[in-house]
Design goal:
5 helices, alpha+beta, 191 residues, four-stranded antiparallel sheet
Length: 191
């Protein structure tokens, strides 16, 4: 949109197609973030129920037999497949010199049993965000590692993009208002 003022053409920055597109995309990311946040909340509730059942099973084991190890492996593979998480369970044979806390720092290669088997490959990628909890079962110490609230990564990303685009739009509006003020000031001086 152009307008003639004092023989000089001026383009309105506030109604530029790119500026409008920026605010529309910002709102689109905001709406997508709200929808994905709702989906993440519902998935988190389902995951919480499943995880509570799994932890309850681990706490109730008195001794680890082949059957219990298969149950743990099935549960971990099921939760990773259904909820797209990166949980792992490492089962260490108890040693006299190790305290409960020292088992969390042991290398996964030292574990008697490791579920899923590819946990060693993915540990370095997720180590910063991992929470660990341990359970004593007979002669074994079980370390369960998981990433809490991983479902919220996507909504946070959408909200971030929305915020960045909104700031860009806001800066363009401030520039627009500043340019209009400068133009009005020049018009007053030219009279």
């Amino acid at each position: 949109m152009t307008r003639e003022l004092g023989g000089e053409k001026m383009r309105y920055l506030g109604s530029n197609k790119i500026v409008r597109f920026t605010i529309y995309i910002s709102f689109l990311f905001l709406i997508g973030g709200l929808i994905s946040l709702h989906i993440a909340d519902s998935k988190k509730v389902e995951y919480g129920k499943f995880r509570d059942q799994f932890v309850g099973k681990l706490e109730n084991y008195k001794e680890l037999s082949h059957k219990e190890l298969l149950e743990i492996e099935t549960s971990i593979n099921g939760v990773n497949k259904e909820f797209h998480t990166l949980e792992s369970v490492a089962v260490y044979l108890k040693r006299n010199g190790n305290t409960d806390i020292s088992y969390y720092d042991l290398d996964l290669k030292d574990a008697e049993h490791l579920f899923p088997g590819n946990s060693i490959d993915t540990r370095s990628k997720k180590e910063l965000f991992t929470v660990s909890e341990g359970f004593e079962v007979g002669n074994y110490f079980i370390v369960h590692r998981y990433i809490p609230d991983s479902y919220y990564a996507f909504p946070i990303t959408l909200f971030t993009f929305s915020g960045i685009l909104f700031i860009i739009w806001l800066i363009s509006q401030i520039r627009y208002a500043y340019d209009i003020r400068q133009l009005k000031y020049r018009l007053l001086l030219s009279r």
